[in-house]
Design brief:
- By secondary structure, the chain is mostly helical.
- The protein has one domain: Up-down Bundle (Growth Hormone, Chain: A).
- The chain is built from 18 helices and no strands.
- Helix 6 runs antiparallel to helix 7, helix 11 runs antiparallel to helix 18 and helix 16 runs antiparallel to helix 17.
């Protein structure tokens, strides 16, 4: 199959639905940090307490993502990929609609947890279905389309969040949550035409254990494959969760000329990420290798992180441009999730593909703790360099020892003895 034919083969309903689902996923994940401050202000939280309360809300959302990654992944292998795509977006949509009407922090916390729980199933289930629905020659293009459209959700979330906060200072945050909920419900309607994965249908009635999350830890081979997939993605959330989200803190230390806003830095970063993700599939097709494509992106990430931390006296515009370059360098995100789906058999594929991205997101917590601890010893830039260097080394080691899966036929099972 030629590259042009492979790309056309990727233009299917599962790919479109997966792309829009990931759009909603990233829209929410980046919308919350942008509207966090105005929402807490509207709820009467004193400025001195907003940092602590906001961090607690984000932690609850991340807890929902971690737990949901396991729950939806297991459900995807036991009940089917289609059931996850319906249930996850329904839960997320209802949680966001409810979030628009909260009057206190306990209700806000519950809504963020439920939204995280719902969002956890989006990317993994979509990539699993796309990987199993497409011919192997088109899987790279399918993942690129999903991610390229999806990451645009961050840009739209950033623009809408700023627009709502500017024009409706007291109530704009409620409109933002309503928008997210309505988008989710519209997507739920679009998913009615989806069919279940034929590979899952073939194993549904077979006497093989499906969706056993603990089996990832009962075999060194499976655990090694799983851990490598997680470690390869660590630089992505280091860039997003430590460097770019804290742009307002890094800018003065780097001597940036002019005001810098976290929301704009995030939007520029994800704009670059959208372009990087679109091209990642083509790079893997050109190399006929997932590992080589990811290695190229990791190399770019190392250069861009070094440039970010070593720059001095940039204008605000040039700083945002560097954020876009950082975003482009982590454009292997969806390609990595595709690799995770290709590494495991049909009876464990959804479990792994759904848990891997959420474990990577959850790894932001120890990275952030390490960053804050080292900050007291090495300063802001030194601690960022230390944590960034560690995660890049772990990612490089993992991709070097990862099995190539570009041409792998996905019609296989994890049949090792459990336990």
């Amino acid at each position: 199959m030629t590259d042009r034919a492979s790309f056309r083969a990727a233009l299917t309903l599962p790919v479109l639905v997966g792309a829009l689902g990931y759009f909603v996923d990233i829209f929410d994940l980046l919308l919350f940090p942008i509207i966090k401050t105005p929402s807490l202000h509207a709820l009467g939280i004193p400025v001195a307490q907003q940092l602590e309360v906001g961090a607690r809300l984000l932690n609850w959302q991340m807890n929902g993502l971690l737990l949901g990654g396991i729950l939806w992944g297991v459900l995807g292998d036991k009940r089917g990929r289609r059931s996850v795509l319906f249930g996850s977006i329904a839960l997320y949509s209802l949680a966001n609609l409810a979030n628009a009407f909260v009057h206190g922090i306990p209700a806000y916390t519950a809504c963020r947890f439920l939204a995280g729980l719902g969002l956890a199933g989006e990317l993994g289930a979509a990539i699993t279905l796309v990987s199993e629905a497409l011919p192997k020659e088109a899987r790279g293009y399918g993942s690129s389309i999903v991610a390229g459209v999806g990451i645009c959700g961050a840009v739209v979330g950033g623009v809408l969040g700023k627009l709502f906060a500017t024009h409706w200072p007291g109530s704009g945050w409620t409109y933002a949550y309503l928008t997210g909920g309505i988008l989710g419900l519209l997507l739920l309607g679009l998913r009615m035409g989806l069919k279940e994965s034929h590979l899952f249908e073939e194993v549904r009635d077979r006497s093989v254990q499906r969706g056993n999350f603990l089996s990832l830890f009962t075999s060194m081979d499976r655990f090694g494959r799983f851990l490598r997939c997680v470690m390869v993605g660590l630089p992505i959330w280091f860039v997003v969760g430590i460097l770019v989200v804290n742009a307002e803190s890094f800018a003065p230390a780097l001597g940036v000329r002019g005001p810098v806003e976290n929301g704009m830095a995030v939007a520029w970063c994800y704009a670059g990420g959208a372009l990087g993700d679109v091209l990642a599939g083509a790079v893997s097709q050109a190399f006929r290798s997932r590992r080589k494509a990811i290695a190229v992106y990791l190399g770019m990430a190392a250069v861009c992180i070094a440039a970010f931390l070593l720059q001095r006296g940039f204008s605000a515009g040039a700083f945002y441009g560097l954020c876009a370059m950082l975003g482009f360098s982590f454009g292997y995100w969806a390609l990595l999730v595709t690799v995770a789906s290709e590494q495991f058999g049909t009876n464990l594929r959804a479990t792994v593909t759904t848990t891997v991205p959420n474990f990577i997101r959850g790894a932001l917590t120890p990275m952030a703790l390490g960053f804050l601890f080292l900050k007291g010893h090495f300063g802001l830039l030194g601690s960022a360099a230390a944590v960034g260097g560690i995660v890049l080394l772990l990612a490089a080691y993992s991709v070097a020892h990862m099995e190539e899966s570009f041409d792998r036929d996905l019609d296989f099972l994890e049949v090792e003895q459990e336990g």
